[in-house]
Write a structure and sequence with these properties.
Largest interface: A-B, 22 and 22 residues
Distance between the termini of chain B: 41 Å
Number of helices of chain A: 10
CATH architecture of the largest domain in chain B: Roll
CATH superfamily of the largest domain in chain B: Dipeptide-binding Protein, Domain 3
Number of strands of chain A: 0
CATH superfamily of chain A: MetI-like
Strand content of chain A: under 5%
Number of domains of chain A: 1
Structural class of chain B: alpha+beta
CATH architecture of chain A: Orthogonal Bundle
Shape of chain A: elongated
Radius of gyration of chain A: 22 Å
Structural class of chain A: mainly alpha
Number of helices of chain B: 13
CATH class of the largest domain in chain B: Alpha Beta
CATH topology of chain A: MetI-like fold
Radius of gyration of chain B: 25 Å
Largest sheet of chain A: none
CATH topology of the largest domain in chain B: Dipeptide-binding Protein, domain 3
CATH class of chain A: Mainly Alpha
Oligomer: heterodimer
Distance between the termini of chain A: 10 Å
Largest sheet of chain B: 11 strands, mixed
Helix content of chain B: 25-40%
Number of domains of chain B: 3
Number of strands of chain B: 19
Chain lengths: 272, 494
């Protein structure tokens, strides 16, 4: 089995971002909150590799710590989606065709029907801006995604012989769902999880851009972009750096997701 | 042949049309501002954007502010003040008409003042009319106003946008179709985009040079920058992005006017709730703030440090900045004395303007240096008004107080920062009764010192007023003594 090029590039990019975030716990070139206003808006130099922002803070340090914020928010949001969406999807598949299936899936449709970012803005507007509310807002929209993927994968599995065998052996429906169905949809979930993770990073950036994500002084790529907005003509690098950070991270995760799908999806594997 | 002549004719036509447009341009002006007014009645709302559009242009009062802050006669040609200071007899200009053609006379003045001070009045500055006991029409051009007690500020109060003269005939639709006596008549309002004014042919005063004035509303600072650079607009009054000003200064197509405003920007503190009810803690916070760094960082240098709640350009201003000079060591010592040496956490709720958002980040970093954690939350205006201004649910906030001569807010114990000092309240009552200018100046100095001694709020800076205009435009206000974009004296000079 050969690893695809997109998987390798994606994995390298994602690993780099993760490494940067982890490194920031131990070391950053400067404190990410240390202001030095006389040195504001400096272009990249030996002292500040990526320059300084409008308060004279070191941009590299802020991007490193900002990676932490992005990853944490996206990770927990995907976690919420998996923790709630997967059991719902399994239950809907196990009771397929019944009222329970209908209630779960129509509930999912209902959430899906709303543009996710608008609802995220509504949630943070009601409960106040902040990283926790951003996580909840993004997390809620991951629930139907995972519920659908799980149900879709599980439905066909319920018709397979090994599941029949388990039923004949007298196993209960919940036991079959967790012991036989779940392991067989894991591949799907990994692929979907990677994609949702990249969407989560994008959503976090969008929410912080409009001021509803992590509040200052916690750095966030989206807010760095928003702060830089009026200064693009003066010092383009302060917008380019967080912008590129978002692009490269999302690109890396998407490439990795594609590569993983090629690798893990049984149908595509057979075709090769 | 016929094709050639047609082309020639067409281009000739285009040429003349082009010349026409170029000439028309100097009869017209497009002035941009950041906020759109909610409606156009200056006598029933506090929104500054209303006055920016209509003050002096559309509506006039008995007196008016000039660009340097002085108060001069407007609809009242002159006035006599009785010896006891209780009766003001205003002599009105003859031949003044409203834009609908009706005559402005003493009845309209009585109507306007009575309407503003009525029980059910929605005037945002009702206090301006508080001392009026009676308004009497002597003859069509003479009005006698009787006060309950002498008021040294009365002529100043009558110059406010909230005290303009309106007519009973047009009051019903004033919010969407304002009818005043000014040099410009309201023409059209495209909501979300612009308000158009046109020169009023029968204006009683000097005819303004420009015929058509368009006020355009551009809220986004980036869009404001692009629109100005592209020359889509002629003037931007109150330019919102100070970081871009050097680019305009370097560009010969533009001129930059940097003036002062009545906007005392303060870090307001909740004086009623612990721990900020302790003057030592408030003093410590004041000493923890480096004003110059704040002005450089949040406003790119455009601002004047202040040490009390008073405008530095006012002759009565006392410079008290030294009293709360940047001294983190002293700040730490004071916190220790107050028993708050460690782990003090305070909320810092910030409204949308960039001076507040950026200033808040800088102040949070400066407070962290002395061991105070400021928890920032960014609020929209509606939320800020509800939570902070009305609800008083906050520890600290940053806001600019843009009304002229507003030190009186410190005499209102229910005002959002809740400073309750009977001595100060008495001083303000006394000040309102005083008409002698020298005595007033002395009392204003005393008032400034009192609130500085009590460290009611941390006084940060006087907001600068930045106007970007095309080179060749003259007569714009540099300073902003009151919210107004007075177009009556503006000319194109090229």
């Amino acid at each position: 089995m050969r690893l695809s090029r997109s998987l390798i590039i994606g994995a390298v990019l994602s690993a780099a971002v993760l490494a940067m975030a982890l490194l920031s716990f131990a070391w950053t070139p400067y404190s990410h909150t240390a202001m030095n206003i006389p040195d504001k808006l400096q272009t990249p130099s030996a002292a500040h590799w990526l320059g300084t922002d409008h308060f004279g803070r070191d941009i590299l340090s802020m991007v490193m710590v900002g990676a932490r914020t992005s990853i944490a928010v996206a990770l927990v949001a995907v976690g919420i989606g998996i923790a709630l969406g997967v059991p719902l999807g399994l239950a809907a598949a196990a009771r397929r065709g019944t009222w329970l299936d209908e209630v779960i899936m129509r509930g999912n449709d209902l959430i899906f029907a709303f543009p996710s970012l608008v609802i995220a803005i509504l949630i943070t507007a009601i409960f106040g801006p902040g990283a926790v509310n951003a996580i909840i807002a993004i997390g809620i929209f991951n629930i139907p995604v995972f519920a659908r993927v799980t149900r879709g994968g599980a439905l066909s599995l319920w018709e397979r012989e090994f599941v029949m065998a388990a039923r004949v052996a007298g196993k209960s429906t919940p036991r079959i769902s967790f012991e036989h169905i779940l392991p067989n949809v894991t591949n799907l979930l990994i692929v979907q999880g990677t994609i949702q993770f990249s969407l989560g990073i994008l959503a976090e950036a969008a929410l912080s851009y409009v001021g509803l994500g992590a509040q200052p002084p916690t750095p966030s790529w989206g807010r760095m972009l928003a702060d830089a907005q009026t200064m693009v003509a003066l010092a383009p690098h302060i917008a380019l750096v967080p912008g590129l950070a978002i692009v490269l991270t999302v690109l890396g995760l998407n490439l990795m997701g594609d590569g993983l799908r090629d690798l893990l999806d049984p149908r595509i594997r057979v075709q090769r | 042949m016929s094709a050639i002549s047609r082309t020639l004719g067409a281009s000739l036509l285009a040429l003349t049309a082009g010349i026409g447009a170029a000439q028309a341009q100097h009869n017209d002006i497009t002035v941009a501002m950041q906020l759109e007014p909610p409606h156009l009645d200056p006598t029933s709302a506090a929104a500054q954007a209303i006055d920016s559009v209509v003050y002096t242009n559309v509506f006039e009062g008995l007196t008016k502010f000039q660009g340097d802050g002085s108060v001069v006669p407007a609809l009242a040609e002159s006035w006599d003040i009785s010896d006891d200071g209780l009766t003001y007899t205003f002599h009105l200009h003859d031949g003044v008409t409203f834009h609908d053609g009706s005559t402005m006379d003493a009845e309209d003045v009585k109507f306007s003042l009575d309407r503003a001070r009525a029980e059910d009045s929605t005037n945002a500055q009702k206090a301006l009319f508080g001392s009026i006991a009676n308004v009497e029409v002597v003859d069509p051009l003479t009005v006698k106003v009787t006060l309950t007690e002498p008021n040294g500020m009365f002529l100043f109060n009558m110059a406010w946008g909230d005290a303009v003269i309106v007519a009973p005939e047009s009051i019903e639709n004033i919010q969407t179709e304002p009818v005043g006596t000014g040099a410009y008549a309201f023409e059209n309002w495209v909501q979300g985009d612009r308000v158009e004014l046109k020169r009023y042919a029968d204006y009683w005063g000097d005819e303004p040079a420009i015929e058509n004035v368009t006020f355009k509303f551009i809220s986004d600072p980036t869009a404001a920058f692009s629109a100005m650079m592209a020359e889509d607009i002629d003037v931007f009054a109150g330019f919102p992005a100070p970081e871009n000003v050097p680019q305009f200064e370097a560009d010969p197509r533009f001129q930059v006017l940097v003036g002062s405003t009545e906007g005392e920007t303060i870090l307001a503190m909740n004086n009623a709730e612990p721990p900020l009810d302790d003057v030592k803690v408030r003093e410590a916070i004041s000493h923890a703030i480096d004003r110059q760094a704040l002005i450089d960082g949040a406003l790119f240098g455009y601002g004047t440090p202040i040490g009390t709640h008073f405008a530095p350009h006012n002759p009565a201003y006392v410079d008290l900045t030294e009293q709360s000079a940047y001294d983190p060591e002293l700040s730490k010592k004071l916190l220790e004395e107050a028993g708050q040496s460690e782990g003090l956490t305070l909320s810092l709720k910030l409204p949308p303007p960039s001076y507040a958002r950026r200033g808040g980040e800088i102040i949070a970093a400066q407070l962290a240096e002395v061991g105070i954690t400021a928890e920032i939350s960014n609020l929209e205006w509606a939320q800020w008004l509800e939570e902070v201004f009305t609800g008083k649910n906050f520890d600290m906030t940053i806001v600019s107080h843009t009304e002229p001569m507003d030190i009186g807010i410190y005499a209102r114990p229910d005002y959002y920062f809740q400073y309750d000092n009977p001595d100060f309240q008495e001083l303000m009552t006394e000040l309102n009764r005083t008409t002698d200018e020298a005595k007033r100046t002395e009392m204003l100095g005393e008032a400034q010192k009192m609130i500085a001694d009590d460290y009611v709020n941390a006084y940060l800076f006087q907001l600068a007023y930045i106007t970007i205009a095309k080179a060749g435009i003259e007569g714009l206000w540099t300073n902003l003594p009151t919210a107004a974009i007075d177009m009556t004296e503006v000319t194109w000079n090229d």
